[in-house]
Amino acid sequence: MKPRVFIDRIEFDIVGERDERGALDELPIEVGTRLPDVPARLISVSGSIKVFAKNRKGEGVEIGESTIRLLEKHTEARCPVANMMIASGCSVEVEWVDGFKGLPTS
């Protein structure tokens, strides 16, 4: 990205919900157990992703709303896992936030 963004860390607080029928139907698994009729897919994923950036000196800095949106847009477009979930019909409701926004500076 330009200007360059140095990411210190990313914290994920994500919850997924799946259709239990695909994973839990026809238990126990034994010889002759039929496969489930319903795929074991995620129904929804929600939560937040906090991005903590730093400057060249290693100090935590805010990167701003426009940079967070750009990072969100490109990460989701380029992430094979996100693309696979969306293509399967999974609802993805994840909020990207600047981890240092509003925190006091030292």
Helix content: 25-40%
CATH-defined superfamily:
K homology (KH) domain
Number of helices: 3
Distance between the termini: 26 Å
The number of strands is 4
Q: What's the structural domain tally?
A: 1
Quick check: average pLDDT?
A: 88
Structural class: alpha+beta
CATH architecture: 2-Layer Sandwich
CATH top level class name: Alpha Beta
Low confidence ranges: none
Order of helices and strands: EHEEHHE
Strand residues, percent = 25-35%
Model description:
This protein has helices at residues 20-24, 65-78, 80-87, and strands spanning 6-18, 42-54, 60-61, 91-98. The model has no long low-confidence stretch (mean pLDDT 88). It has 3 helices and 4 strands. Strands 1, 2, 3 and 4 form a 4-stranded mixed β-sheet that branches. It has 106 residues and is an alpha+beta fold.
Question: What's this entry about, in short?
Answer:
This protein has three helices and four strands; from the N terminus they run βαββααβ.
Provide the fold topology:
Blueprint (H helix, E strand, L loop, with lengths): L5 E13 L1 H5 L17 E13 L5 E2 L3 H14 L1 H8 L3 E8 L8
Parallel strand pairs: 2-4
Antiparallel strand pairs: 1-2, 2-3
Index terms:
alpha+beta, 106 residues, elongated, GMP Synthetase, Chain A, domain 3
